[in-house]
Design the sequence.
């Protein structure tokens, strides 16, 4: 598979399984993370895009925003990889079919499924627009329908500025043909054109001179069911200011029209129908690819929803439930099989300490945690500094991310890092954590506050505890199951015991309380000197209500102590 990728280059650390598709912007492959066993979709950008510095500069900004967005109607972007050989997007792998394939195989979806599809698109767009991100070139090929009937938007920000109309000519708003930039209004136009195609089996405009048709041809609303014609007129209005002001506003109009025409259960019925159509389309051969446009294609950034009123609240609640299931499914495969990365030296099995007194019963799996933890502590004491990354996600609003440098000082870790979390603390900030205080850069000054509480201090407290070596050794000490496969140690520890662990107990108490978990599962990879390299921790079931921690360490060495900024 690797030989078929652009220029023969592949993202290190992944094994390719098969090609998923491709287009003007690049090729997409299904791959497996060699470390975690997680399946991902990797999009290798076309060589021309990888050499387009203007596009890359714009996409780097978009990628930073996309990587922080988690929404059930948007495909997660895990990483944007750039090297001298090429550029690639590492994304969430969604099991499902593209809307393009579904329509080609099944034809019109019917009004309820089409309304559910439009609702999903608007939910995704609302989140993106809230973060100043627009898609720009939406079309059925970059909308996935998963096994639960969710519309998942992908390929954000992959259309170079000025090429959006050429990338998706049948769905491009009139102003895009006049050279105007992509906006919220152009996204709503594209979503409406796709909605029209779901209803009728064909786009609203097709054939020659697409620019003139979008600018001048009458809106073909008479082709759709009467109760839905007003939605078509609103979304396909020729002038941007005549379209809905936001995705949330359009979602409210959709809800009103759907309930009025089809009753309050319309969404459940529509989602069920989408699920059926997607499953049937998946059993049929992939339809032939449409003729490629002359210009390279891409799309903009992440989406989501924020709505007012009861109906939109119900949509958001349903969306959150899907995120929980997706997070559990993704976490379940991390480190499965215990395969070590090729080329790594595997640390030798620690030898149990010799003693004339009776030895304690070993955890299930046969690894004695005492000498293992001792070796880890000794190794870290010799080289107490490292680059680190940490991410906590899951069902219950405890999202936190940190990336930077860690130094163990007097048994406690201190950090210089970029910090971000949920809610008001979602925006990344420069920060320093020393002892029990957080310092955040605000303009030219540093602001100090105690760890804990709300906002950034709460996120910093999570990162300090979860991103520490002490957190990992506490898991091992408390383990009732601990096994070794290559360089990876995997096990389980009772939540009740972990809540008593010095320094990190509050973190595990929080995770256990939120998920109801009685056991905390974990896996840790060590290097040849018994220093942590990667880890994951999960409270709760693999699928369902859970909380996950993931992190990594690299470049272990002696570093100067981290001092509180002035």
Sequence:
């Amino acid at each position: 598979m690797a030989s078929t990728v652009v220029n023969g280059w592949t993202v290190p650390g992944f094994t390719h399984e098969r090609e998923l598709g491709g287009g003007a912007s690049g090729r997409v492959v299904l791959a497996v993370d060699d470390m975690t066993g997680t399946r991902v979709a990797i999009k290798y950008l076309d060589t021309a895009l990888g050499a387009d510095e203007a596009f890359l500069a714009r996409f780097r900004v978009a990628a930073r925003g996309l990587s922080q967005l988690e929404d059930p109607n948007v495909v997660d972007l895990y990483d944007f990889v750039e090297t001298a050989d090429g550029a690639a997007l590492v994304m969430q792998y969604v099991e499902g079919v593209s809307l393009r394939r579904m329509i080609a195989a099944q034809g019109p979806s019917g009004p309820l499924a089409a309304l559910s599809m439009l609702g999903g698109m608007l939910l995704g767009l609302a989140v993106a627009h809230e973060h100043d991100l627009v898609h720009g070139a939406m079309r059925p090929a970059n909308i996935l329908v998963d096994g639960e009937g969710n519309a998942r938007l992908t390929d954000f920000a992959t259309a170079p500025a000025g090429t959006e109309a050429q990338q998706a000519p049948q769905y491009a708003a009139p102003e895009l043909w006049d050279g105007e930039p992509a906006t919220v209004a152009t996204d709503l136009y594209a979503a409406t054109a796709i909605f029209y195609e779901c209803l009728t089996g064909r786009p609203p405009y097709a054939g020659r001179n697409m620019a003139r048709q979008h600018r001048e041809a009458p809106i073909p609303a008479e082709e759709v069911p009467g109760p839905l014609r007003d939605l078509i007129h609103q979304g396909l209005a020729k002038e941007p200011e005549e379209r809905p002001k936001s995705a949330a506003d359009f979602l409210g109009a959709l809800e009103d029209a759907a309930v009025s025409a089809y009753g309050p259960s319309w969404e459940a019925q529509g989602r069920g129908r989408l699920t059926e159509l997607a499953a049937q389309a998946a059993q049929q051969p992939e339809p032939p690819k449409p003729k490629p446009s002359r210009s390279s294609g891409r799309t903009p950034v992440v989406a989501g929803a924020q709505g007012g009123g009861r109906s939109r609240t119900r949509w958001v609640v349903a969306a959150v439930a899907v995120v929980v299931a997706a997070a559990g499914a993704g976490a379940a495969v991390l480190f499965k099989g215990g395969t070590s990365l090729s080329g790594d030296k595997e640390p030798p099995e620690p030898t149990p300490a010799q003693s004339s007194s009776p030895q304690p019963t070993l955890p299930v799996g046969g690894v004695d945690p005492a000498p293992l933890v001792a070796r880890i502590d000794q190794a870290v004491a010799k080289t107490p500094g490292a680059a680190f990354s940490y991410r906590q996600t899951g069902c219950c609003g405890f999202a936190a991310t940190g990336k930077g440098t860690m130094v163990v000082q007097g048994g406690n870790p201190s950090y210089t890092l970029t910090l971000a979390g949920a809610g008001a603390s979602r925006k990344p900030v420069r920060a320093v954590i020393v002892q029990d205080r957080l310092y955040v850069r605000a303009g030219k000054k540093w602001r100090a506050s105690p760890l804990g509480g709300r906002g950034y201090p709460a996120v910093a407290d999570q990162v300090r505890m979860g991103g520490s070596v002490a957190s990992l050794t506490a898991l091992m000490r408390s383990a009732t199951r601990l096994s070794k496969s290559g360089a990876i140690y995997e096990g389980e520890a009772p939540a009740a015991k972990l809540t008593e662990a010095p320094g990190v107990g509050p973190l595990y108490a929080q995770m256990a309380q939120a998920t109801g978990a009685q056991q905390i599962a974990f896996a840790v990879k060590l290097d040849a000197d018994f220093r942590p390299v990667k880890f994951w921790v999960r409270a709760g079931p693999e699928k369902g209500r859970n909380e996950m921690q993931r992190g990594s360490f690299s470049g272990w060495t002696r570093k100067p102590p981290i001092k509180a900024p002035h």
